[in-house]
Amino acid sequence: MRVIRADLEVPFWCSFSEYGTVNIRPTYPFPPPTTLFGLIQNALQKPALHDLTDNDRKGIGLQYIEDYSKLNFAIIINESGEKIDDYLNIHKGSREIEGIESSLKEELQNRLDDLNLHENDEKKLKKELNKLKRKNFSENFLKITNNQKISEKDEKQILALLELIKAAGADELLIFIQSFWNSFKGGINGYNLNKKWISTQINRQRIITPKYTIYVTSTDSAGEYSIDNMYSCLKSPKRPLYLGESDDIVIVSKLAIKEVNDELIKSVKIDSVIPGVRTNCQLVKIPCKLKNDFPDEKGHNLICSIPQGDLDQELSCLDVEGEHIVFLRNDS
To answer: Number of H helices and number of E strands within the chain?
Structure first.
């Protein structure tokens, strides 16, 4: 059997947030297989699902599930690092308004093309579309119409825009803008549109300067996820590599392809994380499936054991140049 072996050293800190946590985010003590798959994806310059359109996300997401199923990992914790609590202030809210304003700008652009205005008037109005598309333009226009007070700066800007629209004979733009925003007053669209941004504090655990060794096997013999291609991309990655969050830099060293004897040995000394429950171990539940995968009867998680010394009974394992390892999926 051919495997990739690599040492992973985090020079600063990293965090592998437990799946499903929100404001309080404990970290797993080692990178789960899903995180290691992300490391390989980054080396291959694969796009993140959240960067894709809805149409592309589904198909590519299913492809990633298939690609992930080809790989298996063994993980050794060489240095566990020091866990610390970090506190972050973040803003929560909805960014839906940005997409709505963009669609309004596009509609206004089309309506200006249909109005057959004087060329100079049309040109001037098109320059102001970024102001006309804003929700606060509609709100301030209503306030001025109802003799309500707004800031001097806003009033000056609104009056200038109204004068420009009137001079161009494009009053129907104002009617359309008001009608557009009125359609978002109720229901879920209205809720998302008017959702206020709030500040909240997150408690995130981080691990200072941990070190790991990983082994990777693949059932892909000649494709992107073949041992040779993954080795090549990890050696010369197409993007900067990180482990966990996108600013948690990782140094990959002692990268090598190893020929491993498939014959299992038995030993009470296991160096890697072990799937299942064992004595004299620290137990941890980690994700073993991608977020967008469908859970089977076992769910998305896998209970693992981190050896704290010799086991009380021998366990089947692979001997790789003196390191006794067990891959996390039992079918390998």
So the answer is: 10, 14
